[in-house]
Design a protein that fits this description.
single chain; about 110 residues; alpha+beta; hypothetical protein tt1805; 5-stranded mixed β-sheet; 3 helices; about 35% strand
Length: about 110
């Protein structure tokens, strides 16, 4: 039996966590309800978008790890990257969270 939380429940929890820390969040793309991969885009006041993905770690945990940062001179490349990722795997969820303390938010994410 898989002990992993269904993706739709985890997505809801991530959005509520952002709201509890004074931020806001939205679903940019819905993925597979139970087992979809979750991509998390964080930003501060609409700026400095950073992509986090859950990656397996050597100790068996699955932590969110920064995999891409938005280039301020070419912001459209970030959106294009997200579009490509979703096209490659339509089961992927893409969330966007706008929050003042990104570091705290990421540190509070479950593993």
């Amino acid at each position: 039996m898989d002990a992993r939380l269904p993706a739709h429940l985890e997505v809801g929890a991530l959005l509520r966590l952002a709201e509890s820390q004074g931020g806001s969040g939205m679903i940019l793309a819905k993925g597979e309800r139970d087992a979809g991969t979750i991509l998390l885009v964080t930003m501060r006041r609409g700026q400095d978008a950073t992509l986090f993905e859950r990656m397996p770690q050597l100790d068996g945990t699955r932590s969110f790890v920064c995999t891409k940062e938005q280039d301020s001179e070419k912001p459209q490349e970030f959106s294009e990257y997200l579009d490509r990722r979703h096209a490659q795997d339509p089961d992927t969820w893409i969330l966007e969270v706008d929050i003042d303390d990104v570091e705290r938010f990421v540190a509070d994410l479950p593993q």
